[in-house]
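Hey, sorry to bother you again with one of my protein questions. I've been staring at a protein lately and its backbone has me curious. I owe you a coffee for this, so here goes:
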Amino acid sequence: MREIGQKITFSVNNKMEKSIIDRLRNVGCIFAEEEAQLLISEAGRLEDLLEMVEKRASGLPLEYVLGFTKFCGKRIEVKQGVFVPRQRTEFLVKQAEALTHNNEIVVDLCCGSGAVGAVIATNFNNILLHSVDIDPIAVQCASCNIINIGGHVYKGDLYDALPYLLRGRVNIIVANAPYVPTDAIKLLPQEARLYEPKLALDGGKDGLDLQRKVVEQAIHWLAPGGHLLVETSEMQAAQTLAIFENAGLATKIARDHELDATVIIGTISCKE
């Protein structure tokens, strides 16, 4: 696929471009001009463009229509049915990278498209990246983003999918586990409710079911001095913090108000 803005192989005149913008705006696309430019730049043929416009006008998320999203400046392939990485999760990456060193072992749980691990592995030398998701579509998508940079992708339930030899050797565990309470799913934007897998959104009654599993088992997989980083919401931060502390991790909260992003960071004792 071409990079954004690469010259297309057919002509789109001003009238056609305006027609596309109007079509998108009439169905509620707030950034109709920007979306139109992306669709035009990515279409290989006029027929492809018209099909993409209609898919977007039907409500299909732009990322699925394009087949990719931009995350931390990196192009991440996304397939329909995979969780689309959010901009706020770039803060999780930033916090993880501040604790990561070259030649370390990094595990990305609930990896979805593989975006978080892919960025970390790209920015460090010889990172040994292991990414896990239980959803076969996510595993397929993550493989597209990770295997070509030397990472490994596993299908399974959290740590159960990892090679046993990693126990006690992992330096960084990152997890953007689903944390939306079940009853709040219906309040999410339509694109998430209708098109993204519930498995990637639903965190159980209080939204913290998967976080508990991630944290409780982390001590068996982290190397001495290793770090666990979990994205959560500002409203749930105190509860997530308590889960970390109850597991015996030295814990702190990192917060970015501009991105509305919250990350809980836990560190295992070097004496473990």
Observations:
- The longest helix spans residues 14-26.
- Residues 1-5 have pLDDT under 50 and may be disordered.
